[in-house]
Amino acid sequence: MTVTVGELAAFKARREPFIMLTCYDALTASALDEAGVPLLLVGDTLAMVVLGYDSTLPVGMDEMLVFTAAVARGARNAMVVGDMPFGSYQASVAEAMRNATRFLKAGANAVKLEGGARVTRAIGKMTRAGIPVMGHVGLTPQSVNALGGFKVQGRGQTGDQVLEDALALQEAGCFAVVLEAVPSELAARVTRALAIPTIGIGAGPEVDGQVLVTPDLIGLTSGPLPRFVKRYADTRATLVEAARSFAKDVAGGHYPGPEHQYH
Ligand code: KIV
What we know:
The chain is an alpha/beta fold. It contains eleven helices and eight strands. It has an eight-stranded parallel beta barrel with strand order 1-2-3-4-5-6-7-8, surrounded by seven helices. The structure holds 3-methyl-2-oxobutanoic acid.
């Protein structure tokens, strides 16, 4: 049975922290599902961690739908959330609605989009049509050019705007809100003010759930990472070592052995 919006609300009611992880393919989806991860986000971060771009801006609907369908095929119980890419929901409410619909047809159970009050009309239309919507405020990477970089948001007076936006998203019908790169005190304030769950990334401990980008979680990404990332494995080193061992075995005539051959 797929995790429901009601079950996520129950996590908040029980004050039981939960997690969400990004996911971009069927095999990883089946492994994360086996681990009991309740929420799989087909994040537009795939533009960076899968497709190699330096921001999330270039990825479009067609690519997002291919990866969303793959994740939906791999997941059994997790709720699959499709991340609406830059340009897919800003032009008009009608276009936003059409694109949200395409995510659900591809197998997503919900969609996520970035922004506060400026996207509530589109969210209202979607939720009235039965599409669960997750909001996203604080650092909204699709606005990287307007924000002047991937910077912490909501410090000082601007924190009130983040809170207002989160309340507007709740009012519009969102079932949860991602808070990205905001001071912990602000995230705690927003979490207390909202009846729906907050899911933090770089938002400190006082949120209802935590989300990480899976290639960061498993140590596949390299180079400097944001302060909030905690690596739980060193998959990159494992992969490099496995490839080197394979090459060494082949060069030394140790692979394939008798047990790897057909006769
Ligand atoms: O696209 C994404 O992966 C996200 C998470 C960082 C929340 O939006």
